[in-house]
Amino acid sequence: MADHLYELLSPHLPSTETNISRDPTTIQYLNRLPTLSLQALQTTEPQSLTQSAYSTLLSLQALSNRSHKSFIASADSLSNLHASIPNLTRQAQELRDVIPNLDKEAVRFSSKYSRAADNATLEQRKKVMRLSRNVDRISDILELPTLLATAVSSAAASSGNAGTSFSTTYSAALDLYAHIKRLQTLYPDSPLVKDVAAQAEDAMKEMTSNLITTLRSQNLRLAAAMRTVGWLRRVAPELDALHGDGGASMGGGALGALFLVCRLANLVSTLEALDPLRELADQEKQRRTRSLDQKSGTGSWASGHQTEKYLKRYIEIFREQSFAIVSLYKNIFTPDQSESDTAIQGLRGIDARIKTPSQADRKLDPFQCLPPALATFPTHLVQLLTDTLQTYLPNIQDKTARESLLTQVLYCAASLGRLGGDFSMILTELDETDDDETGGLAYEWEEVMRKHRALAGRLEQLTGANPTNPTGSSKGTLQATSLAAA
């Protein structure tokens, strides 16, 4: 029915609407027309069509106003569709061509970073990642040599002060060094730790030099000396090495000898401060020598007043410093009984010698053990004193002044004798001078010793006669010596 109606109406339709017969809406409307009456077709249907067209127009206007941008974009896309499709085809072809290369690179990456076997690349990446995680710790380790050098420099700068900061700074430096050595023990193959340890060794060498300089300082007290020696034992344990095959301590090892050498250097520098007096004494010696050569008698030159001042001050310094050195050594190193006996035998008398090793010791050590440093050190001290006395004492013509100086030497010998180093018998073998000016030095020394013993004996009798003094014999000698020294 709809087809027949369309054939009837097609002559009256515009040429552009000839293909609307296949439209479902058109077919539905043509099927509806036969159901209407003629009167409805003439009256109500045109009005209904007009109303529907107007309603449709309003809907299209509202839709255009609301979605005109989408319509424009759709129109643009539709206009570019003929160019986009070839472009998409070309890109799809390119993607298909690169897929084999991508697969090849994926296989190569998988084989390169495979965990099936030891992979050098992965190990290197692990090291880099581990380094990144531990960068703070490594930075702390790298700062250790700088901190150590700063601590050593600060301690050296404050070494002149007697406060506790000096001790604390050195202790902190030693703790840092012990930590570095611990790291070196834990990681012996690490180049970083080896480099840090090498820098720490340089700082410890500087610290050792500073400590040795401290041992040479003036007015070194027992507490400071013990602290310094203790630090040296920690910094340079090789200085405290054992001597001999028996493993027994021999006077603090090389550290004890180093201590004595440093204190001897201080003594020599203190005595060198007397150079102005020594130069005057040398001038008197030259005048005395010229006087003896010219046989002009004793009145042509001074009687040695400047030499007396020099020797008096020299003996005072020698007495004080020698007693302090030996006393400090004994208090710091505390040798055992066998060493003490050996040291005392080496100190007493001019014929004292070091014990000869037994045959068993010779077999163990064919070169024999070195003697303790304290056994030979006082001999060197006494040699300094005797050389000075032999050189300058003949300048003094006044017998009373000579006896006063020799008495002062006797008290010096008694002072060292309290530590086992009495050298009172050494001066008896000095070279005697038979000229009328000076007389025999050994004879004068014997006279001074005889007078001193007589005075000590009388004082001992006085103190021994007191019934309230049960130990008068031992105290009498001490009182005699103290009285004579006063």
From TrEMBL:
Belongs to the COG8 family. It is found in: Golgi apparatus membrane. Pfam families: Dor1. Transmembrane segments: none annotated. The keyword Cytoplasm does not apply. Residues 463-486 have a biased composition (Polar residues). Residues 282-293 have a biased composition (Basic and acidic residues). It is a peripheral membrane protein. It comes from Aspergillus cavernicola. The lineage of its organism: Eukaryota, Fungi, Dikarya, Ascomycota, Pezizomycotina. Residues 282-302, 461-486 are annotated as: Disordered. This is Conserved oligomeric Golgi complex subunit 8. InterPro entries: COG8. Keywords: Golgi apparatus, Membrane, Protein transport, Transport.
